[in-house]
Amino acid sequence: MSMEILNRDTGPSEKIGTRALLGAALATCLLVASQESSAETTGWQFEVTPYLWAASLSGDVGIGNSPTASVNADFTDIIKNFDFGAMGTFEARRGRWLLLFDGMYTRISGDGAIQTASFNHAEVISTTGILNPVVGYRLWDSERLSFDATVGARIWVVGTKLKLSGTQSVELSDTNAWADPVVGGRLRAKIWQKWFVRAFGDIGGFGVSSHLTWQGFGGLDYEFGQACSLIVGYRALGVDYRPSGFTFDVVEHGPLVGLAIRF
User: Fold this and answer.
1) Residues 6+ apart with CB under 8 A from 37
2) Contact 146, 188 (CB under 8 A)
3) Which of 58 and 33 is assigned the larger pLDDT?
């Protein structure tokens, strides 16, 4: 069974929320920039990065004995299929050691026509909460290039609601939680004056919970002042989790914009 997600209009409340979040982050950045860094006295360096990720959803989802729904959204549909999200990272660094927490909550939904004997329409609503606690060690550190090797976990809480309609009507829902080990790396390279390239990626699962999970990000970082950077790029995150009675084999992907605040 396959399904193409239809376009939906983005409501004014979502636009207002986006502007408010960016405005609050920028105000915080300017406030921090006016103060002295605590790194000189404590030896610790901190970075908080609120970000907005306009993620689409593609892959297969299934609950119980229901047909598996194949959900696909084109890049042009990303914003319209994104219902809500709260996302951010917190980084603490001392010397070559790194502690990082990346957390997000997203709600993505879509509906469309399907072709089975009993159903001709399906709607999928997917809510995903993800927490990435990571420990890293800086293997390379120079004025122009830094690279951290990382190890950690990806903790998932996924709620899926599947509505099928046609000659019959079925509504199924389920919530699953699991954790996967992950290994990866993070890179930041100076390319010109205040411009940097940022990239990170990891891979994990290894059959512990998921068959496979992975993510990758690549983008540009513009540093203004000593305290802040504007980050723009593209992120993809995938997982293949198939316990008995539940299928969640999906990829979320889309453009990302964030504001890194250092103190």
Assistant:
1) 45, 226, 227, 262, 263
2) yes
3) 58
Q: Enumerate residues 6+ apart whose C-beta is below 8 A from 117.
A: none
pLDDT band at 15 (very low <50, low <70, confident <90, very high): very low
What tens digit of pLDDT does each residue of 195-218 get? Answer: 999 999 999 999 999 999 999 999
The Cα 87–Cα 54 span in angstroms is: 11
Distance CA 217, CA 98 (A): 18
Nearest to 142 by CA among 188, 99, 94: 188
Tokens of 9: 């209009």
Helix (H) or strand (E) holding 103: strand 97-113
The residue ranges of every structural domain in the chain are 2-139+150-181+226-262
Q: How many residues does the chain have?
A: 263
16-25, 111-120, 168-177, 244-253: the lowest-pLDDT one: 16-25
φ/ψ of 6, rounded to 5, equals -90, 160
Q: How far apart are CA 119 and CA 104, in angstroms?
A: 33
Residue 42 φ then ψ, to 5°: -105, -20
**Tens digits of per-residue pLDDT, 168-195?**
778 778 789 999 999 999 999 999 999 9
3-state secondary structure of 96: coil
